[in-house]
From TrEMBL:
Keywords: ATP-binding, Nucleotide-binding, Transport
Domain ABC transporter as annotated: residue spans: 5-239
Protein species of origin: Longibaculum muris
The protein's name in its UniProt record: ABC-type quaternary amine transporter
Group of enzyme by EC: translocase
SMART domains: AAA
Gene Ontology MF annotations: ABC-type quaternary ammonium compound transporting activity; ATP binding; ATP hydrolysis activity
Length: 268
């Protein structure tokens, strides 16, 4: 597998407070990495370093083999979609204008192409065409979240960073969005890094789960390995409840619903 993102000896401190130290991680192309850990452990900080929103105190971040320090940040961000919790849509723009924002910048002359791309992404994220002319305030929370995802995807990024994207929606919408995101991932082969507070979401969506506690990586493994062989007491506690829902001894966990991307739908 090809490496797409690498954290090399990363340290991040805010003033005297060290949030991440000796942070080393390799993300392979095409993985769906879910990131989970205690509150304030550095998940968002790690994510935002990938698109240059936060600079490390020391160490290097490589994206597609190149040190982002040497890259033009605007150019870097064109290849990296970013979706966060709640609505971060432009309030004075319609749904169509929001989704077409980046494609329009890249593709100014061919309006028809952009128009078709907007329709395609609206369909993929489950938004009705008739919502195109609405403004964000005229949409439900779930619809706003879908527009946010469509906007992040419409630039055809190689990498999609998602920071608790479903944190602000109700359980039912959340379940639907999870299924849609998984389908988008399977169709596009994009690399996703997805921060969540919910271990069952982390196990359900991730092909790999990154567990962090107090800035230290506890385990970076498949959902199955996390359940079958938790690497520390922290991971063990985190997955304990999920192990019980599987009702299976360790050696049969492979058949449980969290056996990774391909086994995801077995119990659905
Ligand atoms: N700009 C900042 N200045 C000072 N401290 C900061 C800043 N941003 C984050 N922190 C601190 O760094 C630590 C890590 O923050 P971060 O947002 O990365 O954590 P997180 O794991 O995403 O947290 P949560 O799960 O609560 O969202 C926290 O203690 C936070 O208070």
């Amino acid at each position: 597998m090809e490496t797409i993102i690498e954290f090399k000896n990363i340290k991040k401190a805010y003033g005297d407070k060290v949030v991440l130290e000796d942070f080393n991680l390799i993300v392979e192309k095409g993985e769906f990495v879910t990131i989970i850990g205690s509150s304030g452990c550095g998940k968002t900080t790690a994510l935002k370093m990938i698109n240059g929103l936060i600079e490390p105190t020391s160490g290097d971040i490589l994206v597609e083999g190149k040190n982002i320090h040497d890259k033009n940040l605007t150019e870097l961000r064109r290849h990296i979609g970013y979706a966060i919790q709640g609505s971060v849509l432009f309030p004075h723009m319609t749904v169509e204008q929001n989704i077409s924002y980046v494609p329009h910048l890249l593709n100014k002359k061919d309006k028809e192409k952009t128009h078709l791309a907007v329709s395609k992404w609206m369909k993929i994220v489950g938004l009705d065409e008739e919502l195109k002319e609405r403004y964000p305030l005229e949409l439900s929370g779930g619809q706003q979240q879908r527009v946010g995802i469509a906007r992040a995807l419409a630039a055809s990024p190689d990498i999609l960073l998602m920071d608790e994207p479903f944190g602000a929606v109700d359980e039912i919408t959340r379940g639907q969005l999870q299924i849609e995101l998984k389908q988008i991932y399977e169709k596009t082969g994009i690399t996703i890094l997805f921060v969540t507070h919910d271990i069952s979401e982390a196990l359900k969506l991730g092909t790999k789960v990154l567990v962090i506690d107090k800035g230290v990586i506890q385990q970076y493994d498949t959902p199955h390995e996390l359940l079958a062989h938790p690497a520390s007491d922290f991971v063990k506690q985190l997955v304990e409840k999920e192990r019980h829902t599987c009702h299976l001894p360790d050696d049969q966990l492979v058949d449980c619903k969290y056996s990774g991307a391909s086994g995801y739908s077995k119990h659905r």
